Amino acid sequence: LIDRRLYLPTSWTDDRDRCRRAGIDDAIGFETKVAMAKAMVRRAIAEKIPFRWVTADAAYGYSKGWRFELEQADVFHVMATTRHDTVVTRWALDHPVHDLFTGLPRQKWKRRSCGKGAHGPRVFDWARVEVRPWHREDRRHWVVARRSVSRPEEISYYIAYCPADTTLDELIRIAGSRWAI
Question: Coiled coil located at which positions (predicted)?
Answer without folding.
Answer: none
